[in-house]
Amino acid sequence: MVTAVTNLGRSGLSDWLIQRVSAVVLLAYIVFLLIVMADSSLDYGQWHELFAQTWVRIFSLAALLSIAMHAWIGIWCVATDYLTPYVLNLKLGPFFGSKATVLRLSFLAASAIVLFTYVVWGIQILWS
Amino acid sequence: MHNGFLLIFNCRLPYCLGSGPNKCDKTVNDKRPVNMDFGTIHMPLPALASITHRITGVFLVAGTAVLLYLLDESLASEAQFDAVRVTASSALFKLVVFVVLAGLIYHTVLGVKHMIMDLGVGESLEGGIAGTKISIALSAVLIVLMGVWIW
Hints:
- The structure holds 2 protein chains of 2 kinds.
- By secondary structure, chain A is an all-alpha fold.
- Chain A has helices at about 10-35, 45-50, 55-80, 85-90, 95-100, 100-125.
- The longest helix of chain A has 29 residues, at about 55-80.
- Chain A is elongated and about 60 Å long.
- Chain B contains 7 helices and no strands.
- The radius of gyration of chain B is 21 Å and the shape is elongated.
- The interface of A and B includes residues 19, 20 and 86 of A.
């Protein structure tokens, strides 16, 4: 029975695929930035012009959304592995063990706010 | 998310044990010893690589703020573009950028290794250890090159 509702794709298989597709997008974006920055004579004008192009903005937005999804799946996996009654009871004692669910959901909520902020901030950077 | 060792020891089993007073244990055998204290379990090299992949992943959630800041500043104006040129900035700023990029390099290389293993390459015990050694060596080389580029 599926009891988890906080994971991104509602199923492990879906998360597995999203994690890899987003990883490939991010790898491509890193390679793209490396190629651009390999030119040591790169100046502000060229850099600004590059990010004014539609395809670069689309690529950058894809990378930005990939960061958010990839980070959410990673954070969710880590949080549901370690912020559990069993692990917290073992490592920090019964008080934290009994508060594990509240702590985990708070951590996930804080992470969601941070990642959402990154997306909005990134859109502002790209379209300003 | 992880194959082999960590799927068993790191991912789902603590849930089962943690959701009640050892309910799995009871259904199988009351006397069976249970040790889920990760600190006392010997970690083979691929397991250490996996846990550091997780640690760098969580770290990069914060590191993303630094990278977005750099992008923001570099596109804002010519003066700000010149100010965030890492090669021409303060020692502290260089160090922050170095640590974030080092985390990114390690996480990326180990992530590529992960996907190569998804394709069925190097999934044996020896393959896993060899792949991890290659990944760590490659990360180290790339991190040194990145450091040379910054300083």
